[in-house]
Every structure is written in structure tokens, then in C-alpha cells.
Amino acid sequence: MTTTDGTGATGIDLGGRYGVWRRGLDLDGGLAATLERLGFGAVWVGGSPDATLAKPEELLAATETLVVGTGIVNIWASPADEVAASTLRLLDADPDRFVLGIGTGHREASGAKAATPYAALVEYLDTLDADGVPRENVVLAALGPRVLGLARDRTAGAHPYLVTPEHTREAREILGDGPVLVPEQHVVLDADPVRAREAARAALTNYFGMANYRNSWLRLGFTEDEISDGGSDRFVDAVVVHGTPADVAARLAEHLDAGADQVAVQLVAGEPGEPVEDGFARLAAELGLT
Prior knowledge:
The protein has 290 residues and is of the alpha/beta class. The protein has helices spanning 29-38, 54-62, 80-93, 117-130, 145-154, 165-175, 193-204, 211-219, 233-239, 245-257, 276-286, and strands at 18-23, 42-46, 67-70, 73-74, 98-103, 138-140, 157-158, 180-181, 184-188, 240-242, 263-269. Strands 1, 2, 3, 4, 5, 6, 7, 8, 9, 10 and 11 form an 11-stranded parallel beta sheet that branches. The radius of gyration is 18 Å and the shape is globular. α1 (29-38) crosses α2 and α3 crosses α4 (117-130). The chain contains 11 helices and 11 strands.
């Protein structure tokens, strides 16, 4: 069954109910150590980490208890055999703190033509299995029902991106009680709604043209008009939570109530001029982590 401490019935321990998603270019050992000190259980490295997994290795070396996951390795860009070798290297050094998140990512930018995304993902998992990567250390960036089913059957669980609590509820129904579920949540920690929505739309700009996200939003009940031209206020408010730390904490709780084991917070922006560490500290205090 799903627990409330960030550990799924598969046995994978995510370090707690709250994690952080951040692009690798904006993440170093110092920030990872700060997040660990603030009480976050995991950090998910975005921006398609390369097959060497050098960034996750750097973060593991800089911390003692923080779980490090990839959110996600793009299967079109990183060969499975190379990723498997890097994963086994990290697990050999620290068997309890690394999670390999993989996914089809943004195929539009890859130029890949040889296989459907689903078939390519199955083939990639076959290679990881053959090379000895433990399934309990792998999760999929699953959005739709078919890939969520694959995550349930072939890995430790799912790490969906740009989703709502409604998606989390539907994903949990598909996954069942065992696999872990770690949705990413965009956050603007700013109580000014006009300024916050402006920051939210800027963060979403690159995703509006990507078919995997548009299809996911349409399945959630948004219309084509709502996800065009910068997105309607209803759409933006649903996908990017903004407001005070209490407002953000309430949205994170909705994910947990819907069946998430952990929520990965992507702090897009805070108050004007606020250092990112201060934003995370404000949120950690509201969540009772510090």
C-alpha cells in the first residue's frame, strides 16, 4: 500500500513526502546540501541529465541522506547501455540513494523517427533489465494510461510532470497500491496573483507546443482554447500553484491526499529579488520540515 512517509510498498525510500525538482544547470552540491538541511527528502535533476549521470553523482557526493533522482533521462538522447553502466556505478557506491527516472521526453527536439515512443521505452527498459539495473531503482515519466501501466508492470513507479492533483488521483488508480508516485508541481511563491501568473506563463511557454503535455492537459478536461495563447487563468492556476507558502502547502497536500508518495516542488519564482534558498526555506518552514 501507499504510505504517507515517502516510501511505497515496492520498498523504494524517497526520504519523505516532499522533494525538489530542479534543472541540473541550476543545481549544485551547495544547493543540494541546503535542501537536505531544510528537510526535503529528495532532489530530482531535470533538464535531461546525460548518460554519464555526472550531475546526480556530484549531488550524492555533496550530501549524506538526500535521495537523488533523475527527472528525467531522455531515452532519445542517452543510450540505454551507457545509462545502465552509470546507474550501476552510482548504486554500487550508494545503493539506497539513487533513483533513475527515464522517459521519452521531448521527442520533437530529438529528431528520432525509428520507433513509437512506447515501443522505444519498452526496448529501453529491456536493455536496463538485461544490463542488471534493479527495477526498484527505476521510475518512468508517465502521463497517459498506457505508460502508467508500463510503469506499474516494469518499474518502481511513476514520476509525472506538469500535472494536477486530478491526474495524481487517476494515476494512482492505474498504478494500484504498490508502485511509488512522485508528481512534479510547478510553484510560484508570490502572493501577488498578477505577477505570479506572469511568472507561471513564462515558465510554461516552451511546453505549450509539446504534444505529450498538450495531450495530457486535454485528457484532464482542459480545452484547446485554454491551453493556447499563454493559457487561460483557470489552466495556469491548475498547473502552477501560486501564492503564500500556506497556499502552496495546500496544493501539495492535495497531491498527497490523491495518492502521491512524494511531491517534487519546482520553485519557478519567489518574491521579487528573493534568493532561491530563501524561498525553499519559507516553504520548508510551512511544511514543518525545519
